[in-house]
Specification:
Length: 378
């Protein structure tokens, strides 16, 4: 046996971790690369923070974040046993992948080839096989790809399904009626619907929780509630699935959500009017930015999220991303071959997004941007 040359495990040496969007420490950037909300949290959150008893920090928090959990359940016509809260939807999703999915030979977790890239990371971390049906030329998910139920010999048997709706990074929304077909076609495996951006569309699978025991809906406070810095998310599912998530949670960290985050999130969740106001504002800005970019020759996918996914035919996405950065604007670009020339642009304020369209108009008017092979003339 060869002598071990590293103190790290094989997994730690070889896994390709998730790469988060840049969080700049210096410089005055318009930051539109990580889908943060451009508006502050609800005034209810500020009032809750002002009256918070900071003496509570010396004690461990309520394991279940009961006030927040019960509020989420009540708002959606569910019971507390249908809800579990955690440190952002990423933690909840990581628990779900461990709680729900096993992949024997010939089995795999299904999710699209273009979607939230953390899904592949979790499969690698938890030694799960995965299968990625390709989205079509319009970046749409084909419902039939997730309804084979083990009947197609050229595909692995589904050991579970993970779907982001709206999808990321495309922003495309799949109607709940289509997702329900996938849920119904996979009764013996869990279908996770990741609704991180659901507040910016008119689609949610939460009403289906009572109908399907194999459905788990995950949401976050990071985007729509303007609370990315507090890291709060939740899952809604049949109590048997929630109990499975809790077993994984309590084998890792039985006090996942701190008392301050739980109380601030409850204040935010209770203010549905403020959520609608800010979401509507973001939607209007999203539609204006989409129209402005189409006028200058960009392809803009239909979005139900707080971002748009765009490209300029014949122009390098790498060059555009670098050009925007040199103009003080951060957006997100992914290196995967199918989308390397596309940019994901978070919806900021009206003023911020106007600067984006102005900068892109200026950049793409340069002769050097007429060939996507030229990335050196910024």
């Amino acid at each position: 046996m060869d002598k071990k040359t590293s103190l790290l495990s094989v997994k730690a040496r070889n896994i390709a971790p998730y790469t988060a969007g840049e969080q700049p420490r210096g410089g005055a950037f318009i930051k539109l690369n990580t889908n943060e909300n451009p508006y502050p949290p609800s005034p209810s959150v500020l009032r809750a923070a002002a009256s918070f008893d900071y003496g509570r920090f010396r004690k461990y928090p309520d394991i279940e974040a009961s006030v927040l959990r019960d509020l989420i359940a009540s708002r959606n016509g569910l019971s507390p046993g249908n809800i579990v809260c955690g440190n952002g939807s990423d933690e909840i999703l990581a628990f779900c992948f461990q709680a729900f999915f096993d992949t024997a030979d010939g089995e795999a977790v299904y999710f699209p080839d273009i979607t939230y890239s953390f899904y592949k990371v979790w499969c690698g971390l938890y030694s799960l096989n995965y299968f990625t049906p390709p989205v079509d030329v319009n970046f749409e998910i084909d419902t039939a790809d997730y309804c084979n139920n083990g009947q197609l010999k050229d595909k692995p048997r589904p050991a579970g399904v993970a779907l982001a709706n709206p999808n990321a990074p495309t922003g495309i929304v799949k109607p709940v009626s289509e997702i329900e077909k996938i849920i119904a076609a996979n009764p013996e495996t869990v279908v996770i619907v990741d609704e991180a951006y659901g507040a910016f569309s008119n689609e949610t699978c939460l009403p289906l929780i009572k109908k399907y025991k194999n459905l788990c809906v995950v949401q976050t406070f990071s985007k729509s509630y303007s609370m990315a810095g507090l890291r709060v998310g939740f899952a809604a599912a049949d109590p048997a699935l929630i109990d499975g998530i809790k077993k994984i949670r309590d084998s890792f960290n039985s006090y996942p959500l701190d008392c301050f985050a739980a109380e601030m999130s409850a204040a935010a969740y209770a203010d549905g009017a403020y959520l609608k106001k800010t979401a509507d504002k973001i939607i209007r800005t999203r539609e204006k930015l989409s129209a402005d970019l189409r006028k200058i020759g960009f392809t803009v996918l239909p979005s139900g999220a707080n971002f748009v996914f765009v490209n300029k035919p014949g122009v390098s996405g790498e060059a555009l991303c670098a050009g925007l950065r040199s103009s003080g604007i951060l957006v997100r670009r992914f290196a995967e071959p199918r989308i390397a020339d596309w940019l994901r642009i978070t919806i900021g304020t009206t003023a911020e997004t106007s600067k984006v369209s102005e900068a892109l108009k200026l950049l793409t008017s340069r002769p050097s941007f007429q060939s996507k092979n030229d990335t050196n003339s910024l």
